[in-house]
């Protein structure tokens, strides 16, 4: 259930940023859900493979910065996959990656500390 909540919130963040940043274009909420799913899957597979040697190289001291840059790269890969999703430049991808990281932190905290 947490995965579905996170997926919909990430899709909402992507759609919200597309309204505020003219360099992020997304067709509709359905496309945002698919983009959020693909970003999550790519980040868990390709992103982990890219992050591991970089974290070893920096001894984990720049872990957050590395995660941001790798997520921005994954966002650009998702841009290449979907025709209804476009990011013009690397800086908007970095902004989107930062927003998804902040969103993920808040969601993790909220879902771990929910009343049962």
Per-chain topology:
Layout: H1 2-20, E1 24-26, H2 29-57, H3 63-81, E2 85-87, H4 90-112
Antiparallel strand pairs: 1-2
Total number of distinct structural domains: 1
Number of strands: 2
Distance between the termini: 14 Å
What's the pLDDT, averaged over the residues? 88
Structural class: mainly alpha
Report the C-alpha radius of gyration, rounded: 14 Å
Gross morphology:
globular
The major β-sheet equals:
2 strands, antiparallel
Total count of helical runs of at least 4 residues:
4
The residue ranges in which pLDDT falls below 50 over 5 or more consecutive positions are none
Widest sheet: strand order? 1-2
Helix-residue proportion: over 70%
Q: How much of the polypeptide forms β-strand, as a percent range?
A: 5-15%
